[in-house]
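User: My instructor asked us to take a sequence, write out its structure as tokens, and then describe one feature of it. I'm not sure where to start. Here is the sequence I was given:
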Amino acid sequence: MAAFRGSPASASRRPQKADAEAARIVVPFEDNRMLTRLLGEYDSHLALIEDRLGIDAHAHGNVIILTGPANACAIARDVLEKLYTRISKGEAIGAGDFDGLIRHARTDGPVTDGQAQVATRRKVVKARTQAQSTYMRAIEKHDLVFGVGPAGTGKTYIAVAYAAHFLERGLVERIILSRPAVEAGERLGFLPGDMRDKVDPYLRPLYDALYDVLPPEKVERDIETGVIEIAPLAFMRGRTLANAFVILDEAQNTSSMQMKMFLTRLGEGSKMVVTGDPSQIDLPPGMKSGLEEAVQLLSDVDDITAVRFANADVVRRDLVAKIVTAYDKVK
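Assistant: Let's start with the prediction itself. The structure tokens for your sequence are:
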């Protein structure tokens, strides 16, 4: 099988493994067609395993040979066998699945089926970090969940996936997605176009997540009929949101008054998820963010929980995690 990982440059990035814990594990697979999918294009998935675990991994015939620290090789074997099983069941896999299982194995021990996941009509979204698993289980269990942490940790995407999951199974009648538009003041009147033209650019990330977890035609139809509503935060005032899955994104840019207004919209049969990144507050100087205040005030209230993400939970790509860490160092 073709591979471009044997260059001196790639070899120099991998740590030496001539230590007392060194191991050599041979992992056999029955179906070469499924093995090709497991390896990825140009063995890219093996390259990812090498990079994440600091081992050597290469394919030979119908086996994969792992060499390096015993514990790391054991994790790699478990990840490979787990994902091969998924392929045999007809599931699509990608680099994110490898990354997620490796992250879980490092914090939780051996790879198991305990990785949290949520299924929609279009895809199965699996947790890629322990914080994501905690977040997903919190959404299943609680009526109000705060997801707090840096960009790229999957807070909004997972919440939208759960909203789609609940809607498809008839657990809610509609989805309502909201975020502050044009900073906290929502000064929409100065922008050109009608109301949808004004607010769509600020709500685009929510649209993108919806189209990723639901068929596009269903999203368009449900938006037209009001089953899915995407609106700026200011539109929530005076409403009671019953039998709905409600998401407030970018909540760090709400004032205390706005946050109280939004939280008190929660009606019977509804579930609410509030996400935000306290490091990216765009409020005017001196104005307190309603997100952190709400998390603190409601910390002891039953059926409300907050899940905090760290830089290590960034799953968008490694470079994003490095950017977040670099900015945090100068605070």
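For the description part of your assignment, you could build on this observation: Residues 1-20, 182-186 have pLDDT under 50 and may be disordered. Try explaining in your own words what that tells you about the chain.
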